[in-house]
């Protein structure tokens, strides 16, 4: 299905995750975050960059692993991305929903 973020038409699956990472831009991520009720800060972008790097390296993502990343601890992760931090942050990062997310 198609959705528009930041004035750009992108392909997403039925859960709203991008199906083609090449369509992701920082502006698309910013607009996705706003629709999730999140105002992005430098710390948010640091997490997003970490998630994208892990995805490029094909490293499976879990909340515990992110908490041990040195980028953010688990408490901060939940504070930055309330209502399912890994699901929401992955969506904003333009990467697939992690297998560890139900």
Task: Write out the strand line-up for the largest beta sheet, numbering strands in chain order.
Answer: 1-2
Note the run of SSEs as H and E: EEHHHHH
Beta-strand residue fraction? 5-15%
Shape: globular
Description:
It is a single chain. With about 100 residues, the chain is mostly helical. Helices cover about 45% and strands about 10% of the residues. It has a two-stranded antiparallel sheet with strand order 1-2. Strand 1 and strand 2 (about 10) form a beta hairpin. Helix 2 (about 40-55) packs across helix 5 (about 85-95). It is globular.
How is the secondary structure organized here?
Blueprint: E1 2-5, E2 8-11, H1 26-35, H2 42-56, H3 63-67, H4 74-80, H5 85-93
Antiparallel strand pairs: 1-2
């Amino acid at each position: 299905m198609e959705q528009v973020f930041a004035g750009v038409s992108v392909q997403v699956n039925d859960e709203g995750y991008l199906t083609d990472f090449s369509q992701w831009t920082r502006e698309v991520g910013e607009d996705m975050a706003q629709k999730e009720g999140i105002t992005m800060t430098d710390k948010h972008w640091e997490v997003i960059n970490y998630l994208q790097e892990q995805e490029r390296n094909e490293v499976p993502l879990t909340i515990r692993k992110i908490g041990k990343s040195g980028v953010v601890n688990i408490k901060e992760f939940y504070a930055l991305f309330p209502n399912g931090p890994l699901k929401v942050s992955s969506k904003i990062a333009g990467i697939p929903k992690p297998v560890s997310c139900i």
